[in-house]
Design a protein that fits this description.
The complex is a heterodimer of chains A (168) and B (184). Chain A is α/β, with parallel strands linked by helices and 168 residues long. Chain A is 46% helix and 19% strand. Chain A has one domain (3-108, 142-161): Rossmann fold. In chain A, helix 1 crosses helix 2.
C-alpha cells in the first residue's frame, strides 16, 4: 500500500469527511487519493486561510474537516488560526508538507522552513513531525487527539518521509 | 440607505435561516437588531464570511446566508472561484457594497471606484449574480432563497455607520449555540 493510500485510509477511519487542499509537489499523491475517495468531500481552495474558513463552516455543519497544505502557508494563516480556529475552539488536523528540510532542492523553501516550528510553537499548536514512513503509524492517534481537544494540530511531513523528490 | 438600514429591513427574512455575519459593525448591528442562535458572529478574521458560509452549506442541507462586505470580499478574492466551481444551492452570498471599509472609518474601497464585484463574480464563473439597490435587498434575498439556487447578491448602498457596542459574548458560546441551531 502506498503511503498516500495509508494516510487517506487513516483519515477515513477517523471519520474525516471534508478536506480542503492547496497543492504542493510532495502532496500530489495524497491529494489525488483524497479526490478519488467517495467518503471525502474534497474542496480545493485558492489560499490556505480561505481553506480554514471552509473547514470552520464544515465543522459547524457537522463534518470532520482537515486541511492539506505546504508549510509556507503557516505564514498566510496565523491570523485565521488565532482568531477563528483557536478562538472559537475548533478542531483542525493540518497535514503539512515540510519543505526546506533535508533533500530540498529549492533554496527559498528553507527560508520558511526555519520559521515553521518556531511559529507553530509560538501559536501553541501541537506539532508532530513525520520523518520516516513508520512515523505515520501515529496518524490515527493524532487525529483522535485533534478531535478530542478541539484544536488545530500540525503534522509536518518532510522530504525524507515522502521518499525525496523522485529524481534526487 | 446605509448597511444598518438594510440589516434592519431584512432581519425578519434572515431570522429563519442560518446566517454567517461579517466581522465588525455588520455583526454588531445584526446582534443589536435580532440576536439569535442562528447567527454566527465573526469576531475576527476579515474576509472569511463567504468561506465559512460555503463550508457550512456544503456540510448540511439548511439554507445559509453569508453577509459580507465589499472590503471583505476584496480581501479574500479567491473565494469567488471556489464558490463558482463548487455550486451549493443552499448557499447565498449577500455582499453589502457600500464602497467603503465601514468598520475602520469609511475609507474608500476599490469596489467603490472602478471594480465592480458583480462583474468579478461573473468572470469567476458564478452563475446567479444579482445586483440590487439597497431598498430592494429584502425582495431580492427572498427571491434567492425561494429559487433554491446558489446566488450572489450585490446590494449597493451608501456608506455610513451607527454607534453601537461591541459584542461581548464568548466566541465558544456563539459557536456552541450556533451548532445547536444548525442541528435543531
Amino acid at each position: 500500500m502506498s503511503i498516500s493510500t495509508k494516510i487517506v485510509d487513516d483519515f477515513i477511519a477517523q471519520g474525516v469527511n471534508f478536506i480542503t487542499t492547496v497543492p504542493c509537489k510532495q502532496l500530489a499523491g495524497v491529494i489525488d487519493e483524497v479526490e478519488a475517495r467517495p467518503e471525502i468531500h474534497h474542496v480545493p481552495s485558492n489560499k490556505e486561510d480561505e481553506g480554514m474558513g471552509l473547514c470552520a463552516g464544515a465543522f459547524m455543519g457537522g463534518k470532520r474537516p482537515a486541511i492539506i497544505m505546504q508549510n509556507t502557508a503557516i505564514g498566510v494563516t496565523i491570523n485565521t488560526l488565532a482568531t477563528l480556529t483557536q478562538y472559537y475552539r475548533m478542531p483542525l488536523p493540518m497535514l503539512i508538507s515540510y519543505r526546506g528540510e533535508l533533500r530540498e532542492p529549492v533554496a527559498c523553501q528553507v527560508e520558511m522552513a526555519v520559521h515553521t516550528k518556531a511559529l507553530l510553537n509560538q501559536m501553541l499548536i501541537p506539532t508532530y513531525h513525520f520523518h520516516k514512513e513508520s512515523d505515520a503509524s501515529e496518524l490515527q492517534e493524532i487525529l483522535k487527539y485533534t478531535f478530542m481537544c478541539n484544536k488545530p494540530v500540525a503534522i509536518l511531513t518532510d522530504a525524507s518521509f515522502w521518499g525525496g523528490y523522485g529524481d534526487q | 440607505m446605509i448597511r444598518s438600514d438594510i440589516l434592519r429591513e431584512i432581519a425578519p427574512i434572515l431570522h429563519d435561516h442560518l446566517v454567517v455575519c461579517n466581522i465588525g459593525l455588520p455583526s454588531q448591528e445584526l446582534h443589536m437588531i435580532d440576536d439569535n442562535a442562528k447567527n454566527f458572529y465573526m469576531l475576527g478574521t476579515m474576509g472569511l464570511s463567504s468561506s465559512i458560509g460555503l463550508g457550512l452549506a456544503m456540510a448540511q442541507p439548511k439554507t445559509v446566508i453569508s453577509i459580507d462586505g465589499d472590503g471583505s470580499v476584496l480581501t479574500n478574492f479567491g473565494t469567488l472561484p471556489t464558490i463558482a466551481n463548487n455550486v451549493t444551492d443552499n448557499f447565498i452570498l449577500l455582499i453589502i457594497d457600500n464602497g467603503s471599509y465601514g468598520s475602520t472609518g469609511d475609507q474608500p474601497t476599490y469596489a467603490g471606484k472602478k471594480t465592480k464585484l458583480e462583474d468579478v463574480a461573473k468572470a469567476c464563473g458564478c452563475e446567479n449574480v444579482v445586483t440590487c439597490k439597497a431598498e430592494d435587498t429584502g425582495a431580492t434575498l427572498q427571491a434567492a432563497i425561494d429559487s433554491k439556487k446558489m446566488t450572489i447578491i450585490v446590494s449597493k448602498c451608501e456608506s455610513g455607520n451607527i454607534k453601537l457596542d461591541v459584542i461581548t459574548m464568548d466566541p465558544v458560546v456563539i459557536r456552541d449555540r450556533f451548532m445547536n441551531a444548525v442541528k435543531a
